[in-house]
Amino acid sequence: QKEVEQDPGPLSVPEGAIVSLNCTYSNSAFQYFMWYRQYSRKGPELLMYTYSSGNKEDGRFTAQVDKSSKYISLFIRDSQPSDSATYLCAMLEGAQKLVFGQGTRLTINP
Amino acid sequence: GAVVSQHPSWVICKSGTSVKIECRSLDFQATTMFWYRQFPKQSLMLMATSNEGSKATYEQGVEKDKFLINHASLTLSTLTVTSAHPEDSSFYICSARDLRTGSYEQYFGPGTRLTVT
C-alpha cells in the first residue's frame, strides 16, 4: 500500500464547475499537507499549505484536512480553463521529506 | 522571489555517457536541495537530499555511485547521471529550501527531461 493514495483521473469538468480533488494517507506522522499544481513539462508550484485539521481558503481554492480520517481535499470554485493541470498532494515526513501522491490530471472545458 | 532554475531543460545522450544537470536558486540561499525523478503520468519520487557542503543522503534503492550529487555552494547543486542507460530516461526535478527561514516550503525548478538512446 502506498503511503499516499490519489486518484490519477483524468478528471474533466465544464468551466465554472466546482472541482474536488482528494488524497488519503496511511502515515499518522505526516503533519504538513500541501497541494501543488504542475503544468505539462514544468516543475510543481505550491498552491496551498496546511498544518492542522480544518479548512484553509485562498481565493477560489480551499484546502481541507481531516487527520482523524487521514483524508485531505482541495476544492476549486468557479473553475477556469487555466486551472487545467495535474494536481499533486504532498505530505511532509519528518522535517524535510515530501511524499507525493500520484497526481490528478484535471481538464476544465470552456 | 524564490526562483529555482535548472539547466539544461532537456538533454539527449547516448547510452554509456554521463550527463550533468544543474540546479540553481536565483534569489535565495538554499541550505538544502532535493532531487526528484518523475516518470510519465507518475508522481515525483525523491532521490536524494543534499545540504550545502555535506554529502547527499540517498533514498533507499537509489544508487549513489550512479547518481552523483554535489552541493558545493548555497546556490548550486548538480546531479550527474553516470553511464546513463535508457531506463534512466526520465524527468528530473530539483527543489530548494532555506532551512534558516524556518519554513518547510520547497521551491521547485522547471525540470530537466533526459532521454538516453
Per-chain topology:
The complex is a heterodimer of chains A (110) and B (117).
Chain A: E1 4-6, E2 11-14, E3 19-25, E4 32-38, E5 45-50, E6 54-58, E7 61-66, E8 71-76, E9 85-93, E10 97-100, E11 104-109
Parallel strand pairs in A: 2-11
Antiparallel strand pairs in A: 1-3, 3-8, 4-5, 4-9, 6-7, 7-8, 9-10, 9-11
Chain B: E1 4-7, E2 10-13, E3 19-25, E4 32-38, E5 44-51, E6 57-58, E7 67-73, E8 76-81, E9 90-97, E10 107-108, E11 112-116
Quick description:
The complex is a heterodimer of chains A (110) and B (117). With 110 residues, chain A is mainly β. Chain A has strands spanning 4-6, 11-14, 19-25, 32-38, 45-50, 54-58, 61-66, 71-76, 85-93, 97-100, 104-109.
Any overview of this molecule?
The complex is a heterodimer of chains A (110) and B (117). Chain A has 110 residues and is mostly beta strands. In chain A, 0% of the residues lie in helices and 57% in strands. Chain A is built from no helices and 11 strands. Chain A has strands at residues 4-6, 11-14, 19-25, 32-38, 45-50, 54-58, 61-66, 71-76, 85-93, 97-100, 104-109. In chain A, a hairpin with a 3-residue loop joins strand 9 (85-93) and strand 10. Chain A is globular. Chain A starts with a strand and ends with a strand. By secondary structure, chain B is mostly beta strands. Helices cover 0% and strands 51% of the residues of chain B. Chain B has strands at 4-7, 10-13, 19-25, 32-38, 44-51, 57-58, 67-73, 76-81, 90-97, 107-108, 112-116. In chain B, strands 2, 4, 5, 6, 9, 10 and 11 form a 7-stranded mixed sheet that branches. In chain B, a hairpin with a 2-residue loop joins strand 7 (67-73) and strand 8 (76-81). The model of chain B has no long low-confidence stretch (mean pLDDT 92). The interface between A and B is medium-sized, with 23 and 24 residues.
